[in-house]
Amino acid sequence: MAATMALLKKMEKGGGVFVDSSKWKRKSLVTIALTFLTSSQSILIAWSRKSGKYDYSVTTANFLVEALKCALSLLALAKIWNSDGVTEDNRLGTTIDEVKVYPIPAALYLIKNLLQYYIFVYVDAPSYQILKNLNIISTGVLYRIILKKKLSEIQWAAFVLLCVGVTTAQLNSSSDHVLQTPFQGWITAIVMALLSGFAGVYTEAIIKKRPSRNINVQNFWLYVFGMVFNVAAIFIQDFDAVLNKGFFHGYSLITSCMILNHALSGIAVSMVMKYADNIVKVYSTSVAMLFTAVVSVFLFGYHLSLAFFLGSTVVSVSIYLHSIGKIQR
Fold this sequence. Notes:
Blueprint: H1 2-47, E1 49-50, E2 53-54, H2 58-84, H3 96-99, H4 103-118, H5 125-131, H6 135-146, H7 153-169, H8 183-209, H9 215-237, H10 239-245, H11 253-275, H12 278-300, H13 306-328
Antiparallel strand pairs: 1-2
Helix pairs in contact: 1-5, 1-11, 1-12, 2-9, 2-11, 4-8, 4-9, 5-12, 6-8, 7-13, 12-13
């Protein structure tokens, strides 16, 4: 009997080790995926430009990103319906009152996503990777204003450090201009940060209004409105080009990889929230900044400066402090 009990305990311990090992592998896989997707996003956009312009229609590319995310959400729902059946919380059927809130964040994401193509007129891939961290500040401030959430002193200090780090990374010692990124690039980055922050906070408010509702259903309706708005953008901006040259005119393997990257990035963030933690996002963002800079040296002849490394380090520390401040709040 004693021998049997000892064997059972050993099996339990072994099972625990197996579970921990499985969780560690899953967390590691998610971390690597998010780091790769985050760092390659700006590289693929910059790489898809030829002679300073896009040969393809950015509105059609943005539409395909939304369509692919919508399809992935449906696949996830189909898997849930197959295993758990259709319930009140995971069915696609809805009401006007539930879906009428989605057009606002969908429109904001549309503008922000289109701006991320045009910002490369003023910045390079590493600078974009640095500047897009400004959405941490906009999100934090909007959290305080809209959701009435208090920010810790550590988080406010992190915001100050983030501004210092972003500015330091943009210092230009080889030119008469103090900053590497021109004024138009800064304005575009700030507008993108505000749009991203407001859309993110608004979307979170929608999700938390009905927490039992399956996230894939909520994402599906958000992406549906995103597709509708992108169709409108195609008609307004690129209708003649699409009509005369075709929907996929100018597309290349790099363009296809970029579209897939944008779609999978949203899925990866969702997986981080489910299988990992906030530290993973911090790690991924920090590594992505350096990885983007190193790859840009070989692809685009980017010159790495001491200011960029110092600024990247300060930005990484500020993101970590913001994360710690959120945990201790």
